[in-house]
Amino acid sequence: MHKRSALLVCLPAAIVAGTVIFASSAQAALSAAEQEQLEEIQRDCELSARADCLQRGLKRYKLSPEEAAALFRQACEAGEVRACSNLGFLFERGLGVEANPAEAARLYRIGCEGGSANACTNLGSLHQQGVGMAADPQQAAHLYRQGCEAGSARGCSNLGILHAEGIGMAVDTAEAARLYRQACEGGSANGCTNLGFLHERGIVVAQDNAAAAGFYRKGCENGDANGCSSLGYLYAAGLGVERYMAAAVELYSVGCRHGSGLGCTNLGFLHERGITVERNLTAAARLYQRGCDMGHANGCTSLGYLARHGIGMAQDPAAAARLYQRGCDGGNARGCTNLGLLYRDGNGVAQDASMAAKLFRHSCADGDPHGCTSLGYLHRAGLGVTQDFQQAARLYRQGCEAGDARGCSNLGVLHEEGVGMEKNPAEAVRLFRQSCAMGFKKACTWAEEVVLD
Q1: Deepest of 57, 70, 165, 256, by most Cβ within 10 A of its Cβ?
Q2: Average pLDDT over residues 86-90
Q3: What is the CATH number of the domain that holds 137?
Q4: Which of 22-31, 32-41, 48-57, 260-269 has the highest mean pLDDT?
Q5: If we measure between CA atoms, which residue out of 333, 329, 353 comes closest to residue 343?
């Protein structure tokens, strides 16, 4: 099963919601995050007895954003700050008005200064991402905190993300966990999903897959696409819940349809391998592409692998290199390793052993054992790095101990030949057998061919 990239990803500046909103008959439904925002807006509306325009504007959101914009503008000019915040949302999204991030920021600022928690959170999103202004993570944190303290669950969740990732502040995962819990209890689906992630990984809180499943389910049921996809992963792996592949397929599908790159990528993996669903390489490629386009780095790497080997499509090493680059840039260590192999061999890119070494070093440090093994090969051969048999052995061992079968077999070869160390045929046999058991079949034969003293 594909590993998942961290779920601790800030919500897009576009905010949150619970009712589907359309800009026109052709406008796609807002995301779960944007739907959560609408619920916050509606709660604001219920607090106001005098803002008839605001209430009528909310009712027109679904059918005519243009009418809603006119109503919000009228209410805003009359001093109803929540209407200013809502009008800002329309300007940010380009719903019923021409998109104008700077005007959205101005209106959010009016709303925030007038006491709208949602406006503070929305303005924080713009500051964090540098939309309509220079990026300022410290100001984003200040605004998220202001929104959180005033009752915006999404503000708490977004502030938690900054603490978890060390954006604009020192990393503080304990504070992130506290904020995610507060957000989840306050109705933020994203907060529940991120709290589930901490429980799944045992970060700051006790590792507890059953608890993770509960939080993912809550996030999913409240509209967070990654919550659905993450719960699907637990069903596929049988972690915290009974293994149930049909449920995993359905949850991946729901997540993918609602914007989770993780869901698309993992569903693509099932189609590629024919697990639970009929094997369909065309569907796999399409799903990997969707996952990649949604920012899921593993989707890019997986699609690159298909392109590199001509699986379900024409072989295209140059396209594979571009996709591996996207995967690597997005934090997928295997994408870096695979791109390094293309640079090492001059396949789809100009041959550059030094670049290969740089990529292998990066992927090895980021946890891909094959990156360690591949860097070890360069040190043994003296390609792009100084020839160093001892360093090659260390890297092969690192790869082997982390689960890379070729790392074990390559280290076995060094022991068999006495390269950089004394000959040790018995250790070579042990390593070849270990590599064989891990799936590298050539090592099975090598183990039988070693001449023991």
Answers
A1: 57
A2: 91
A3: 1.25.40.10
A4: 260-269
A5: 353
Q: Are 325 and 349 in contact (CB under 8 A)?
A: no
Q: Is 130 inside a domain boundary?
A: yes
Give, as one character, the DSSP assignment of residue 316: -
> Which of these, 379, 380, 363, lies nearest to 371 by C-alpha position?
363
Q: Which residue has the tokens 């999404």?
A: 154
Q: Are 361 and 342 in contact (CB under 8 A)?
A: no
pLDDT at 6: 31
Specify the 3-state DSSP secondary structure of 410.
helix
Between CA 147 and CA 159, with CA 153 as vertex, the angle to 5 degrees is 65
Position 420 in a domain: no
Instruction: Work out the angle at residue 382's Cα, subtended by the Cα atoms of residues 376 and 385, and round it to the nearest 5 degrees.
Output: 80
Q: Find, among 409, 413, 433, the residue nearest to 424 by Cα.
A: 413
- Using DSSP's 3-state secondary structure scheme, residue 325 falls into helix
Q: Which amino acid is at 204?
A: V
Asked if residue 272 lies in contact with residue 241, where contact means CB atoms within 8 angstroms, the answer is no
Range of the domain at 105: 1-150
pLDDT per residue over 206-257, tens digit each? 999 999 999 999 999 999 999 999 999 999 999 999 999 999 999 999 999 9
Handedness of CA 268, 273, 279, 281 (dihedral sign): positive
Q: Classify residue 132: in a domain, yes or no.
A: yes
Quickly tell me which residue has 């604001």 as its tokens.
44
